[in-house]
């Protein structure tokens, strides 16, 4: 192939040299003959990573490959390029080159035998090694529909839809989230027949908000979404944030049209989700979230809008309070293990609430049988609570630190010291009780001593608000930068540091820390890695992946770091754990300088979209290095073409005819189609 060169401007190679995309298909064509021949001689090799990620609960394990284990690699789960389809030039040239050697390759190319392609050929002078690509012998689930990744509500805007309904004199019916079982569950049927009713069909005088939105408006129904309800309870503590999520320009008054809207933050943008007001009921009562006031419906409609955002009500089963808090605010979460919290933990919580941060807490369970089990002190295990206040009270001449907790059930409270009817309150003056909003009602909210809180609770989640969510000029505001990207099988899904051969192919973000904190020598920042849309994709079989990241000191330059760098350099910081939560975040303090942040899944070759956010005390400058893959390609030789070079052999003609038949007008084939073509040509080959 005379004259071939894939080196782009200023000596930078295209993404295809690392990702096998149409932009540089010839790279793989030159490599494949040597690669497959080596594979035929060497056979298969498969190494399993010696450690596993955290997949449930809060137990935390680091990715041990960083410092505790030698590098390992694992077999990828499929053979596929970045774009999912391979260009015709790629397909034709690779396998025309292979045909003369197919007698050596036939034993490896049977459908039942996975073929490892170790792409580090001597004919290339690459910076690092290419990723491992294999064809997995086990069946794969069908690809996720593209429309399932959408997060926006379809159709017209809220005001336009409402005006259409008022003009026609009809009530709005949402075609995107119909009043049917499909909006309720995706893996089961309702236990009893639910009847969808509008609020006016349930009560005579429905109200959107009655006497202000408060924590008592949130009572859990027959759905395991206490994590969401705890976040809603925290949301009611900040009127401005609440008004953004729950717009106040809607009611059941004269301009009622059966349509409502709510706003949620999703991956760097705010979405306006439009719904109708038909709600699932059984025997005339709401089945899911409801208010203590039976004619108040803002909380039930908010839950429905959030269910629509995530695909169904069932998609809301099980979750982390911080997930909903982030969707309500666009903030970033921090998680603390109470038993291991720093000495100034009380001050951390106090400052968080003063900054209008949303705070939740929970008690761990050791088994499924303990889920929602009640302790002797009236607390519920495996249940999400909201932290709604923190204060000090004078008691017998001393200051006692108290913390206020709310159970989203609207009942079942702490019965220990400083509970609603405890003796301690009798020694507190009435004005002090009034200041602390102390009541003896069984409303799900209670005070407890901070020391008792640390004994009985295990986890605390804090959602720090972004500048656009903080309208209070006195509140602390973070500097925020955001990067969005994807882990693509066979390209940028390199897995954690356990998998050295592919780890370097992960996306890399360069971070410049230039300004230290006020009065400090270091720079404080929070790195938050979020996987997108996994809850919405549940009905297609997708689950949360175990994710994390590592931070390295930059060696200088702007190029994508290669495998050798990670072989000989340890990270300066990293996420505490690889865990299957939507977001993993940690707070760091590092000296000023340049750093490289590498976001990864635990296992290689797992596909997902992600969003990486950097929250810093001072402004941090970041840039994506994913496009800058350094490569050193020698000029290929210019062989003298033989007289027969322009004539196709019989095998080449067979291949071309079959390829054109399958590829269609776009002259492109998928990995599966390419495999079929190869098997057919090799089967008929005379070599």
From TrEMBL:
<dbReference type="InterPro" id="IPR036213">
    <property type="entry name" value="Calpain_III_sf"/>
</dbReference>
<dbReference type="InterPro" id="IPR038765">
    <property type="entry name" value="Papain-like_cys_pep_sf"/>
</dbReference>
<keyword id="KW-0106">Calcium</keyword>
<dbReference type="GO" id="GO:0004198">
    <property type="term" value="F:calcium-dependent cysteine-type endopeptidase activity"/>
</dbReference>
<feature type="region of interest" description="Disordered">
    <location>
        <begin position="629"/>
        <end position="653"/>
    </location>
</feature>
<dbReference type="GO" id="GO:0006508">
    <property type="term" value="P:proteolysis"/>
</dbReference>
<dbReference type="GO" id="GO:0046872">
    <property type="term" value="F:metal ion binding"/>
</dbReference>
<feature type="region of interest" description="Disordered">
    <location>
        <begin position="55"/>
        <end position="79"/>
    </location>
</feature>
<keyword id="KW-0677">Repeat</keyword>
<dbReference type="InterPro" id="IPR033883">
    <property type="entry name" value="C2_III"/>
</dbReference>
<dbReference type="InterPro" id="IPR000169">
    <property type="entry name" value="Pept_cys_AS"/>
</dbReference>
<feature type="region of interest" description="Disordered">
    <location>
        <begin position="137"/>
        <end position="156"/>
    </location>
</feature>
<keyword id="KW-0378">Hydrolase</keyword>
<keyword id="KW-0788">Thiol protease</keyword>
<keyword id="KW-0645">Protease</keyword>
<feature type="active site">
    <location>
        <position position="407"/>
    </location>
</feature>
<dbReference type="InterPro" id="IPR022684">
    <property type="entry name" value="Calpain_cysteine_protease"/>
</dbReference>
<feature type="active site">
    <location>
        <position position="383"/>
    </location>
</feature>
<dbReference type="Pfam" id="PF00648">
    <property type="entry name" value="Peptidase_C2"/>
</dbReference>
<dbReference type="InterPro" id="IPR022683">
    <property type="entry name" value="Calpain_III"/>
</dbReference>
<dbReference type="InterPro" id="IPR022682">
    <property type="entry name" value="Calpain_domain_III"/>
</dbReference>
<comment type="function">
    <text>Calcium-regulated non-lysosomal thiol-protease which catalyze limited proteolysis of substrates involved in cytoskeletal remodeling and signal transduction.</text>
</comment>
<feature type="active site">
    <location>
        <position position="226"/>
    </location>
</feature>
<feature type="domain" description="Calpain catalytic">
    <location>
        <begin position="171"/>
        <end position="466"/>
    </location>
</feature>
<dbReference type="InterPro" id="IPR001300">
    <property type="entry name" value="Peptidase_C2_calpain_cat"/>
</dbReference>
<dbReference type="GO" id="GO:0005737">
    <property type="term" value="C:cytoplasm"/>
</dbReference>
<comment type="similarity">
    <text>Belongs to the peptidase C2 family.</text>
</comment>
<dbReference type="Pfam" id="PF01067">
    <property type="entry name" value="Calpain_III"/>
</dbReference>
<protein>
    <submittedName>
        <fullName>Calpain 9</fullName>
    </submittedName>
</protein>
<keyword id="KW-0479">Metal-binding</keyword>
């Amino acid at each position: 192939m005379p004259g071939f060169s894939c080196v782009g401007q200023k000596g930078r190679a295209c993404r295809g040299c690392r990702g096998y995309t149409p932009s540089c298909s010839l790279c793989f064509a030159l490599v494949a003959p040597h690669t497959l021949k080596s594979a035929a001689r060497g056979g298969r090799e498969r190494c399993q990573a010696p450690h596993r990620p955290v997949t449930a609960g809060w137990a935390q394990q680091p990715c041990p490959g960083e410092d505790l284990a030698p590098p390992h690699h694992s077999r990828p789960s499929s053979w596929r390029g970045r774009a999912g389809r391979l260009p015709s030039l790629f397909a034709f040239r690779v396998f025309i080159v292979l045909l003369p050697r197919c007698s050596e390759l036939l034993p490896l190319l049977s459908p039942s035998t996975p073929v490892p392609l170790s792409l580090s050929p001597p004919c290339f002078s690459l910076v690092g090694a290419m990723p491992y690509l294999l064809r997995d012998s086990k069946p794969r689930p069908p690809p996720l529909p593209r429309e399932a990744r959408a997060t926006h509500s379809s159709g017209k805007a809220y005001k336009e839809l409402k005006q259409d309904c008022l003009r026609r004199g009809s009530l709005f019916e949402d075609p995107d989230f119909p009043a049917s079982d499909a909006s309720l569950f995706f893996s089961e049927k309702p236990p009893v027949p639910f009847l969808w009713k509008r609020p006016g069909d349930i009560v005579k005088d429905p109200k959107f908000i009655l006497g202000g939105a408060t924590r008592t408006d949130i009572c859990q129904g027959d759905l395991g979404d206490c994590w969401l309800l705890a976040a809603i309870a925290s949301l009611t503590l900040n009127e401005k944030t609440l008004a953004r999520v729950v717009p106040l320009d809607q009611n059941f008054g004269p301009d009622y049209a059966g349509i409502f809207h709510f706003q949620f933050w999703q991956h760097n943008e705010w979405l306006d989700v439009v719904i109708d007001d038909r709600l699932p009921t059984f025997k005339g009562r709401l089945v899911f979230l409801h208010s203590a006031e039976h004619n108040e419906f803002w909380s039930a409609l908010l839950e429905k809008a959030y269910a629509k955002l995530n695909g169904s009500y069932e998609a809301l089963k099980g979750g982390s309070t911080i997930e909903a808090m982030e969707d309500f605010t666009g903030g970033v979460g921090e998680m603390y293990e109470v038993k291991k919290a720093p000495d100034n933990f009380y001050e951390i919580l106090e400052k968080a609430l003063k900054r209008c941060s949303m705070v939740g807490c929970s008690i761990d369970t050791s088994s499924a049988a303990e889920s929602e089990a009640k302790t002797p002190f009236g607390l519920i295990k495996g249940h999400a609570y909201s932290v709604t206040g923190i204060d000090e009270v004078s008691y017998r001449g001393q200051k006692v630190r108290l913390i206020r907790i709310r159970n989203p059930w609207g009942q079942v409270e702490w019965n220990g010291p400083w509970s609603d009817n405890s003796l301690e309150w009798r020694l507190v003056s009435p004005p002090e009780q009034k200041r602390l909003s102390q009541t003896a009602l069984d409303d799900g909210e209670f005070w407890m001593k901070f020391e008792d809180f640390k004994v009985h609770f295990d986890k605390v989640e804090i959602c720090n608000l972004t500048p656009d969510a903080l309208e209070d000029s006195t509140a602390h505001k973070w500097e925020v930068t955001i990067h969005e990207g994807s882990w693509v099988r066979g390209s940028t899904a390199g897995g954690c540091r356990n998998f050295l051969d592919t780890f370097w192919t992960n996306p890399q973000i360069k971070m410049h820390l230039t300004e230290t904190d006020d009065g400090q020598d270091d720079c404080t920042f929070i790195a938050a890695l979020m996987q997108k849309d996994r809850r919405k994709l549940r009905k297609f079989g997708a689950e949360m992946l175990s994710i994390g990241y590592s931070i390295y000191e930059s060696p200088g330059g702007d190029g994508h770091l290669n495998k050798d760098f990670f072989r000989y350099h340890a990270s300066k910081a990293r996420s505490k754990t690889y865990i299957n939560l939507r977001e993993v975040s940690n707070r760091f303090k590092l000296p000023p300088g340049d750093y490289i942040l590498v976001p990864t899944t635990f296992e290689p070759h797992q596909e997902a979209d992600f969003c990486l956010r950097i929250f810093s005390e001072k402004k941090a400058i970041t840039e994506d290095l994913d496009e800058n893959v350094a490569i050193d390609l020698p000029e290929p030789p210019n062989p003298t073409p033989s007289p027969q070079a322009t004539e196709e052999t019989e095998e080449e003609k067979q291949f071309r005819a079959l390829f054109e038949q399958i590829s269609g007008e776009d002259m492109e084939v998928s990995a599966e189609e390419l495999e079929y073509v190869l098997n057919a040509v090799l089967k008929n080959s005379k070599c």
